[in-house]
UniProtKB/TrEMBL annotation:
One Pfam family here: WbmS-like
Protein name in UniProt: Uncharacterized protein
InterPro entries: WbmS-like
Species this chain originates from: Novosphingobium aureum
Length: 212
């Protein structure tokens, strides 16, 4: 993303010296990606999970739960821990999305586009079919998973065949395994090119908040 002049927000699940270095250099911003699901490696209770992810990113820009898990207990705990922004609601390709104020006082920026939801709902990777939706009014938060982007994943079948590589995927493996046709990464490339050519710009979640 740096070569495109974009500073993405990465929602962190585990310690990474690479991400910490990129954040220190201002190339990325870091949020937390707590896993509140059964058997989570992050912990067995809401507080244990938040202890884990906040140890990784003590001052997160935002929070987005794994699988968008939410509850009153989670919402209260996030606010109690000082989280002021989340992006924990997926409203795929919906026009006119507003920024929401959750009952816990946290500002919520809904996700407008998510890569795996796109293929799950029968979406295609021809951006021309969705250009008008992207140009419509409303919040436009785009959620792309690093693994899906790295392999240019086109569909659920391809993902299921490769997902076991998520913890260990190396750059040379990604190049060899990458889908050569249209997929999530080629779609994002087209979106970036369209935004630039149409006079738009990408901003960080923090910058977006300041405009609301």
């Amino acid at each position: 993303m740096a070569r495109c002049g974009i500073v993405p927000t990465l929602f962190v699940t585990h310690r990474s010296a690479v991400l910490e270095g990129a954040a220190a250099a201002g190339k990325v911003q870091l949020g937390i990606h707590p896993n509140f699901g059964p058997g989570s490696s992050h912990g067995h209770t809401v507080d244990e999970v938040l202890d884990h992810v906040l140890a990784l990113v003590p001052e997160p820009v935002a929070s987005r739960s794994h699988c968008y898990v939410d509850s009153s207990a989670i919402a209260a705990a996030l606010a109690r821990r000082g989280v002021t922004l989340d992006s924990n609601l997926c409203c795929h390709l919906q026009q006119g999305l507003p920024a929401l104020r959750h009952w816990n006082g946290v500002l919520r920026l809904p996700v407008f586009f998510e890569d795996d939801v796109h293929w799950t709902t029968g979406g295609h990777w021809n951006f021309a079919e969705y250009r008008e939706l992207f140009a419509s009014p409303g919040v436009k938060v785009l959620n792309f998973h690093p693994f899906i982007w790295a392999l240019n994943v086109p569909d659920g079948q391809f993902y299921a065949a490769q997902r076991n590589r998520i913890p260990t995927l190396a750059a040379h493996e990604a190049q060899a395994l990458r889908h050569r046709g249209a997929g999530a990464a080629t779609f994002l490339d087209t979106v970036i090119d369209w935004v630039r050519r149409s006079g738009g710009e990408f901003v960080t979640l923090a910058q977006l908040c300041r405009t609301l």
